[in-house]
Design a protein that fits this description.
It is built from ten helices and ten strands. The protein is α+β, with helices and mostly antiparallel strands and about 250 residues long. Helix 4 packs antiparallel against helix 5, helix 4 crosses helix 9 and helix 9 crosses helix 10. It is globular and about 55 Å long. The protein starts with 10 loop residues before the first strand and ends in a 5-residue tail after the last helix.
Length: about 250
Amino acid sequence: MDVPYTSAPGTWAGSGARADVYRSGPYALKVFHPGTPPAQVFREAYVGALVAGAGLPAPRIYEVVGLDGRLAIKMDSMPGKTLHERLEQEPARWKEGLDALARLQAEVHQAPVRLPFALADWISQRIQEGKGLEEGVKARALLLLDSLPTGTALCHGDFHGGNVLADGAAYTVIDWANATAGHPDADACRTYMIYALHMPVLAERYLASYCACAGRPAEAVLRWLPVLAAARFSEGFPEEQEALVGWMGRLPV
């Protein structure tokens, strides 16, 4: 059950699947929904502090506070709209926006941040615990995962234009809840997958832009697609199932 506030923590700025965001002067409060495990909140705050401390364009983190039974992360309030919102209003700038997004992702992957959370472990857990996946599919997906490079680069985990704020020529990457250490190709492939599922007209263009920025062949990025599809399948979005099953059909026999 939702827990009401005795007093508003600021001006409401938006809501997501796990939290509400409020602005108060120079600060923002990301207030997590009741029942969110404290470990998740402190993990996100920890990652955010490391990322901002490394000089990446991300909000500075100050503390975790309690508000009427909820936990909240206090951080800098960043100006601008999401990149997707801006480009919906200025559609002629899609190419420019995607190029900027690709450069940002390549910058994230080069940052001197080494997290103690492995992307390969996250993918493996999602596959093993996936509801609706046949055991044979799980086994094949895990076998492919074992054959792919691991890596230690900073991976955002949910990188797309909805998690990037644009303010003129300045950009800020937000929502580091799923950040891990892993191979950049896997992180870029997840971005490609998100676009292919929900904004397919942008998927190939983004992939080409990222590969040009990072100096990576598209084939190396896309070889992660079957295992990422298997990890995504259990998240239960009905409109995605057909595409995910098609990508899992590329798993080695």
